[in-house]
Design a protein that fits this description.
There is one protein chain. About 20% of the residues lie in helices and about 20% in strands. With about 180 residues, the protein is of the alpha+beta class. The protein has a 6-stranded antiparallel sheet with strand order 1-2-3-4-6-5, covered by helices on one side. The N and C termini lie far apart (about 65 Å). Residues about 25-30 have low confidence and may be disordered.
């Protein structure tokens, strides 16, 4: 409403709105600490835009309600010798995020089929002790991540960008496995 008229009646007209009116009409979202550990539901919703396959692992929710681990599909190169692309099913451990750098693991393809030099051989990890996972080396990114502003979404998408870059650009100068 603008005065006693419906706002749609004024389409195309110049309207002058005071600062007080703007503040009165603003919607406040619940305050959430930037450092609340794990991936918040809002963070996951933003991820789904670029990664529609993303899904949370329900039994790894944190006490604060945030997601500790998610699964998604990323496309990367098969190896530094083969430029064909391959779909990697990735688990990302966000339990220390956003204060700490997340860690990514390949769930599939199987270790024996992976030829990417920046993906380690399979091992077992405490958050998924029954599944063999291959840790993904994203290079020396820890200092850059720590230097990012204290903004959850910026840190999330910078990390995902670095992970995607590592999967798409095998770095033979920083190998995790011999191929």
């Amino acid at each position: 409403m603008v005065g006693d008229r419906v706002a749609t009646e004024l389409t195309g007209e110049k309207l002058y709105v005071s600062q007080r009116a703007i503040e009165a009409g603003s919607v406040l979202s619940p305050c959430r600490l930037w450092s609340s550990p794990g991936l918040a539901a809002d963070d996951l919703s933003h991820m789904k835009i670029d990664y529609p396959s993303v899904a949370s692992i329900r039994n790894l929710r944190l006490p604060n309600g945030n997601f500790g681990v998610v699964q998604l599909t990323m496309i990367g190169r098969q190896s530094h010798k083969n430029s064909q692309t391959i779909s990697y099913q990735i688990l990302i451990d966000f339990r220390g995020f956003p204060a700490e750098l997340p860690h990514a693991y390949v769930r599939s393809p199987d270790d024996s089929q992976i030829m990417h030099c920046n993906i380690y051989h399979s091992d077992r990890y405490p958050f998924a002790p029954r599944i063999s996972l291959c840790n993904v080396c994203i290079g020396d990114y820890s200092a850059a991540f720590s230097g990012l502003p204290k903004d959850r979404l910026q840190r999330l998408f910078c990390y995902l960008n670095q992970l995607q870059y590592a999967l798409s650009n095998p770095n033979t100068g920083d190998t995790a496995r011999s191929v």
